[in-house]
Design brief:
Binding site for NAD(+): 30, 35, 86, 121, 153, 261, 326
CATH class of the largest domain: Alpha Beta
CATH superfamily of the largest domain: NAD(P)-binding Rossmann-like Domain
CATH architecture of the largest domain: 3-Layer(aba) Sandwich
Number of helices: 19
GO biological process, one term: UDP-glucuronate biosynthetic process
Shape: globular
Number of strands: 14
Pathway: Nucleotide-sugar biosynthesis; UDP-alpha-D-glucuronate biosynthesis; UDP-alpha-D-glucuronate from UDP-alpha-D-glucose: step 1/1
Structural class: alpha/beta
Distance between the termini: 57 Å
Bound molecules: nicotinamide-adenine-dinucleotide
Radius of gyration: 23 Å
Largest sheet: 8 strands, mixed
CATH topology of the largest domain: Rossmann fold
Active site: 258
Oligomer: single chain
Number of domains: 3
EC number: 1.1.1.22
Length: 434
């Protein structure tokens, strides 16, 4: 199939490269000239394990190319995939400006018979809106398909190549079948729905996962008060097949470019039809509160006086194996620390450049290594569970710190890791280790 993918972010780039890997001819388009020149020169503008190699392989095979010329790419395409961002507006609603702009541009070059698929996460009715926008600019017949994306950053290639399911929403059975055929090599769990159900299903999935995270975080908070261990509670819950073990890791809450934005957007979608989504509002509220757990623990340790203390932060990305810092809990935690006069020494294996652009430099020393960040610190806060941190030598760590205080916001360390150290250790929902 000849495919044009509009937007080379985490979703568009991974999908485009994976479709090429399946033997399709793919052209990935972005309006950001820096991204396109990086890609044309063999680089990858995001951090995603394995992606650079997979891109190089498919470029060399002649199946994959990159351009900033959207119309040239669309002109040859049988399938045009829109994978541009849908960031939140201040109200929480999804901003559809990039979707609309892409639709209007696509319309100028869309060949007759093409399929236009929206992979971006979009509010209910957006595929119809895209269809109508394109129709207002061209007489060429085409079909609309909603193709929601479920990949996770950090394991995006595997998620794309071995998806749990592929959902295809369409008004046209023929178009849906063509798109299904494209995905047949990946899975036999292909579900064809109407446009609106596909759109809502994506938000509903993220709302469910966010709910699971907020639920276990509240259970962790209760564990701290009643003397239970959330890891044991979660393990026991997870054995129940109706519950399952995934997304039951207590911590400082979810972040990233999807859960925070999609939960808020779904509250707005419900609000537009005069439905008050009370449960999801609480999920969002619990999540926002949870990151301050780290601050509260620091305040307890230092008797409420944080000013002048040096605090090391390990982990800035919203989760490991990505350089994405959008809505990372570290942003708000560090903002608070800096605001109350803490000297912050921060380290992340890959996300520091993105974090610096989002956060600025005030009050922070950016470090090149985990031990360097910890050097001379009164306390260390682990905010992202990078594998590198789990393997840290805690005796060595203790020796470089001013005081051996460790706040593990992701429950990375176990009792045996701490044995033989003098660490005053706080984690989330595991009071027996504190
Ligand atoms: P992103 O911000 O990383 O990338 C979007 C890209 O689109 C940018 O490179 C931007 O320059 C480009 N773009 C915008 N308008 C354009 C235009 N008119 N022409 C060409 N390029 C254009 O976004 P992302 O994280 O890849 O997310 C894209 C969508 O997929 C969002 O709706 C998001 O909610 C959804 N999604 C994201 C993930 C994820 O893990 N990141 C997972 C599932 C779904």
């Amino acid at each position: 199939m000849n495919i044009a993918v509009i937007g080379t972010g985490y979703v568009g780039l991974v999908s485009g490269i994976c479709y090429a890997e399946l033997g399709n001819t793919v052209i990935c388009v972005d309006k950001d000239p820096f991204k396109i020149s990086t890609l044309q020169n063999g680089g990858i503008p995001i951090y995603e394990p394995g992606l650079e190699e997979l891109s190089a392989k498919n470029v060399a095979a002649g199946r994959l190319s990159y351009t900033s010329d959207l119309q040239a790419a669309v002109r040859e395409a049988e399938l045009v995939i829109i994978a541009v961002g849908t960031p939140p507006l201040p109200s929480g609603e999804a901003d559809l400006a990039y979707i609309d702009a892409a639709a209007l541009e696509i319309a100028e070059a869309l060949p007759a018979g093409a399929i236009v698929a929206v992979k971006s996460t979009v509010p209910v009715g957006t595929n119809e809106r895209v269809r109508d926008l394109i129709r207002s600019r061209t007489d060429a017949p085409f079909s609309s398909v909603s193709l929601p994306e479920f990949l996770r950053e950090g394991s995006a290639i595997r998620d794309t190549m071995e998806p749990d399911r592929v959902v295809i929403g369409s008004e046209s059975r023929e178009a849906a079948e063509k798109v299904a055929e494209l995905h047949r090599p990946l899975t036999d769990k292909i579900m064809i729905t109407d446009l609106r159900s596909a759109e809502l299903l994506k938000y509903a999935s993220n709302a469910f996962l966010a709910t699971k995270i907020s639920l276990i975080n509240e259970i962790a908070n209760i564990c701290e008060k009643v003397g239970a261990d959330v890891t044991q509670v979660a393990e026991g819950m997870g054995f129940d097949r109706r519950i399952g073990p995934a997304f039951l890791q207590a911590g400082i809450g979810y972040g990233g470019s999807c859960f925070p934005k999609d939960t808020r957007a779904l509250i707005q979608i419900a609000g537009h039809v005069e439905y008050d989504f009370k449960l999801l509002r609480s999920v969002v509220e619990v999540n926002r509160e949870q990151r301050f757990n780290v601050i509260r623990k620091l305040e307890t340790i230092f008797g409420g006086e944080l000013r002048g203390k040096t605090v090391a932060v390990w982990g800035l990305s919203f989760k490991p194996n990505t350089d994405d810092v959008r809505e990372s809990p570290a942003l708000e935690i560090m903002r608070h620390l800096v605001d109350v006069g803490v000297h912050v020494r921060a380290y992340d294996p890959v996300a520091t450049p993105n974090f610096r652009s989002a956060f600025g430099d005030k009050g922070v020393v950016w470090c090149e290594g985990a031990l360097e960040a910890a050097a001379g610190a009164d306390a260390l806060c682990l905010l992202t569970e990078w594998e590198e941190f789990a393997g840290a030598d805690l005796r060595q760590l203790q020796s470089v710190m001013s005081r051996p205080i460790l706040i593990d916001g992701r429950n990375v360390f176990r009792e045996e890791d701490l044995a033989g150290t003098a660490f005053i250790y706080y984690s989330i929902g595991r009071p027996s280790l504190n």
